[in-house]
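Quick illustration, no need to memorize.
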Amino acid sequence: MNTRPTIHDVAAMAGVSVATVSKAVNGRYGIAPATIARVMAAVDELGYESSLVASSMRSRRTGVIGVLVADFEPFSSEVLKGVGTAIRTLAPDYDLLAYSGAHHGGNDGWERRSLSRLSGTLIDGAILVTPSVITTSASIPVVSVDPHTGRTDLPSVEADSRGGAVQAVEHLIALGHRRIGFLAGRGDLRSASLREAGYAQALRSAGIARDPALTRDGEFEMGTARRAAQSLLTDPNPPTAVFAANDLSAIAVLRTALDLGLRVPDDLSVVGFDDIPEAAREQPPLTTVQQPMQQLGTVATTMLFAQLTDRPLTTTEVQLPTRLVVRDTTAPPPPLSTK
């Protein structure tokens, strides 16, 4: 006789309690995303279907929006704040599920894996933050924020990375700097490539030949950026200023300069990109290009709810402006270093 799988079977396979299974399949609070994924994998494998899950699948409404990120770092955290603000305004009855899926066996394709686990039973729609996979077969509406390869067949929103980089470097040039270093970001991100293009454009427009010896890879990551900054600042002919492709890299430059006995901005000027909360708290406070990270989240949420309510999108590609925020890490170069 065929017996239908029970909640006890799911609990045994997933290695959790029956109460945890109940919370996971019904989308309740207090369950770690990894546990939810393990429970739902067991649900799928066993073919278990509770009445509430069945009802959710029939109605295609869970009352939850998912924000899928590769990692919870400063940029994605600020985007999440914007999503939360928009949900409170647009649909206060909705809940927000923040989910990091890249830890499941590497970064490649984490979006597809995460969407397959969550869509249909746990979330009504998804916002993907810096996704590497930009085409999906998800059965729910999806919006991407700062996609790796740029504009895609998904609705997307991003900031003006190239224009912001031009502003940063033009600011340093206006102060008198000519030997300007660059800490590049991740090579797989279009926004990082655009910031490098903006750096090169500003130098070219000012008639300054780009020196390849002044570029290092910071990878948007503090440890890598510290090593890159050490190499750059100890070069026999170091820069008088550095533009870093994100604020974490710029903060790495500030701390490396301090270790080397350099004074910022007297000996070295530094400009970052993002304007994460830590930028204003650094000593000295960091001059940076502000991209509207929370607004990226609110715009993405607005686009998502338009799809959920079957309203046409006025555009599927949104680019938000960036602006330079001048603080205390930039000044004219030392007189003997003016070139």
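Confidence is low (pLDDT under 50) at residues 54-58.
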